[in-house]
Amino acid sequence: MRLTQWTDYTLRVLMYCAATQGRVQPVTITEIAEGYGISRSHLMKIVQQLSAQGLLETTRGRGGGIRLARPASGINVGVVVRATETDFNLVECFDPATDECRLSGQCRLKGVLWQALQAYLAVLDGVTLADLMGSPTRMGIPALDAVPAALPTVAMPVKGGMPRRPAPPGQRALSGSESE
Predict the structure, then answer these.
(1) Alpha carbons 127 and 139: distance in angstroms, whole number
(2) From the CB of residue 72, how many other CB atoms can be counted at a distance below 10 Å?
(3) d(Cα 8, Cα 43) in Å, to the nearest integer?
(4) pLDDT digits (tens, 9 = 90+) for 95-138
(5) Euclidean distance between CA atoms 140 and 151, whole angstroms
(6) What pLDDT does residue 149 have?
(7) Do 136 and 122 touch, CB atoms closer than 8 A?
(8) If exposure means fewest CB atoms within 10 Å of the residue's CB, which of 34, 65, 102, 130 is most exposed?
(9) pLDDT tens digits for 59-72?
(10) Between 39 and 163, where is the model more confident?
(11) With 0-12 CB in 10 A as exposed, 13-18 as middle and 19+ as buried, what is 32?
(12) pLDDT for res 63
């Protein structure tokens, strides 16, 4: 599952506002745009949508800006993602209007992907904006340096049919018959 840029920026805006919640002066769109290197006009649309959803309050004019409309602990990440993502159809068979797969009646991939999507959303449903801003270990969220930069490599079969485990950098890969 990959989030759209819209959802990514939406979460960044909310997190920025949460991180600066104690400030006297509200956050400005320009400040967020410069902080993240994001288009100001793009952020204006996102802030407008978040305001319409009741997640941000906006104040116009001199000294104006944006603030969270409710406590960060009351903003559920799963709800935000569902409101901003436009397409959860991971494969064409998720949408009966576009499903032209000849295997739809016999394939189990749809069910597996549906379960994976539900698990993904369940994790997000268990997280609030406040959780994202607190100590990473507080609720079992891994610290940034504990998250792999890339997905793990899958064991691939080798000559003779034995699986090969990926080797750490600088080491030789072992086949399934070799001991470690």
Answers:
(1) 9
(2) 19
(3) 11
(4) 667 666 666 666 777 678 778 888 988 999 999 999 998 754 44
(5) 20
(6) 57
(7) no
(8) 102
(9) 998 888 999 999 99
(10) 39
(11) buried
(12) 82
Q: Where are the beta strands (DSSP E) in 30-164?
A: 56-59, 65-68, 156-157, 163-164
**CB under 8 Å to 44, separation ≥6 — which residues?**
29
Q: What is the CA radius of gyration of the chain?
A: 22
Q: Is 36 exposed, middle or buried (0-12, 13-18, 19+ CB in 10 A)?
A: middle
Q: How far is CA 179 from CA 94, 155, 156, 164, 175, in A?
A: 43, 16, 17, 12, 8
Is residue 74 predicted with pLDDT exceeding 50?
yes
User: Six-digit token pair at 64?
Assistant: 């104006």
